[in-house]
Give the backbone structure.
Amino acid sequence: GAVVSQHPSWVICKSGTSVKIECRSLDFQATTMFWYRQFPKQSLMLMATSNEGSKATYEQGVEKDKFLINHASLTLSTLTVTSAHPEDSSFYICSARGSLGEANYGYTFGSGTRLTVV
Amino acid sequence: AQKVTQAQTEISVVEKEDVTLDCVYETRDTTYYLFWYKQPPSGELVFLIRRNSFDEQNEISGRYSWNFQKSTSSFNFTITASQVVDSAVYFCALSEAHFGNEKLTFGTGTRLTIIP
């Protein structure tokens, strides 16, 4: 079935540094990638949607200069948290969507990245 | 705009009891999809089911069953004979089907604890 590999699974970084999170679709072409953020005991909130080769579309209230999304190929999308601060500490999870018919009906989630900024 | 409401924040039941998780949704589209996901403590999302808006048949998969009622905009999830391994956060989600706006909107989740 469709698999999305997300790395790292957890990361601790110092305030002011940048962190890159990768999501790779292993056995299908991810034409669209969704990035979510989940604070403790809260729901998944969509941050942005990216289509391969185009600029990401950010949800209202999400700073595009802080959360840089690159979707340069059909199998890889990255989220870079720039100049991270403690309030950016959260669980980040990606979801890849290819054509219909894949497992999970087109939405395959990565295993998530727990970011802690100290 | 689409919206998903899971009014039950937390539920605790004793093992082997049945439990129903409620989900109510709002959408202006006539074609849409509804999902349920399970999120265990490890964090990954486990896909449970997808239902399209034209298929109101109830579905059963082992101890899991789903009741979709368009008249009340509800898509409830029942676990029969609950087990400790069912303890997790469960999310209901909605996506509209038209190209270019297929993002998933999640409910706030229901934390289910099964007491041994």
Chain A has no helices and eleven strands.
